[in-house]
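Quick entry, no commentary yet.
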Amino acid sequence: MKSFKAITTDKDLIGKSALLIDDNVTNLRILKGHCELWGMHADIATSGADGLLLLANTKFDVVIIDMLMPDMNGIDVAIMISEKYGSGLPLVLFSSAGHFPVDRKPDRKYFKAILDKPIKQAYFKKMLVDTLAKKKAPVTEEKIELPVAKAEASDHADLHILVAEDNIINQKIVVKTLKSIGYSCDVVANGLEVLSSLNRQHYDLIFMDVQMPEMDGLEATRKIIDQYGEKKPIIIAMTAGAYEEDKQKCLEAGMDDYITKPFDFDNFYFKFNLWKGKMAK
């Protein structure tokens, strides 16, 4: 079981998003809690129809479907998802005692995995890792992507980072993501605490949530610019707004860049390394 707690396991799950479809609300609550514990974002739907509506508006990395649901069973939901979104979206089926109808055996091809119920936490996590982990070449641990990122991080080990985020789950995601490449950070929960932290010490980079209580990220950014001018830290917005107007508001407030939530691990690293490189010049 210890293999499920490896650093690479956290990397593969942090920032990923899952859609959970099940008519049993208790099961949904349990699975959602597991996902969030491992740094994932999870949305829930109590029917296949509701799940399809969520998919029409949100991008997910994996969809987990219960087999036995009223109106539309898990296999039929999977077929509809596959027809619309192709095979690039992994689908996982939960079924009591691994039951799969004999007359539907050809439809097993739609699923990356089929798990028995009741669901054990360790097997659920292993399934997610196996499904979401990027395919890596059979090389030694020193040659995979994460250690390379650590080597780059050592060039600027004195980089001072502040994370402003009121959501505890998102705080953990950012902290663990930075830690995985060798960086530590300070964490605050609103814009007022950002200003207070800057009065105490210098920060090179701030990951700033846009919507926070007491003082939001936009107002905090404007006050930072008023106080520090060109000597301000680099500010990267963290926003759940994916529309162009949301991004424009961040830039107009004086933020240097933005990343959208739920977090995409690769995009987070891209933006981090981009601005880290600019600061080094």
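second:
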Amino acid sequence: MTGRCLSQEEADEFAIGSLDPLAEAEIAAHLRSCQACLGLVNLSLQVAAALSFAVPSHRAPASLRRRTFLAAGVARPRMITRVLRAARSAAAVAAALIAVAALAGMIILRGQVHDLSQENTDLSVQVNEALSQKIEILALTSRLNEEERRSADLMQAARGDRDLLLALLSPESDVAEVFAVEESAYSLGRLVWDRGQKKVWFVASRLRPLSDGETYQIWASSGGKYHSLGTFNADSSGFARYEAMVPQGLESYESAVVTIERAGGSPERTGASVFVADLSRFRR
């Protein structure tokens, strides 16, 4: 061969060693410079190796040897000559039979390998389709969960609006105007104290957004001491609505203050004041 690549048949013959020495040397020289043909021969070698281990070897029976010798035209001269000729002829015939059987086995085995490869490809496609469907289901589930959370938030906000409206209309409630500490601030606020429910609401708008390390905290002054009513934050529009239970034992109160404290709240009033409200006129 000169300047061309191997056929599958030539690769198989090279793998099982059935070529003449000259052809085998030419193919070996070609393989040193052609990766494609080298891969083809490696595949044939793997198939041949698998085939050699797939079938157990047995000694041929005498009747088969006699038929092989007769088919090869081996005469029966003197004993020694006959033995030598028979050995050479039998070896040649056996080599031919082995080569034919190896080629046939390689063809069959290659077909099985191709079938397995196709089955693996089909299985891979099915697995990919199943994974794609699973991803779509997870995405739908995530969207449903998000919608459920959003619906729950809306329902909670609606309940908060209803409770605040009831508190504003209740004769048991007092409403105090909340004043911004800085005169330049445009923030507005109201504080609603429901004596019957022992609950307080704080509503404000135009609040400035705080950093991640800060929070608003509301305090009620009683007997010269400030008691925390909890922390809250404004939304992106500057609106805040907060409700909390009045601390147990807090029976009297003079004022309310909203301060800026560190995230999580402070046990003591330490931050800058934002709002103040006079609660001294509230009914006890």
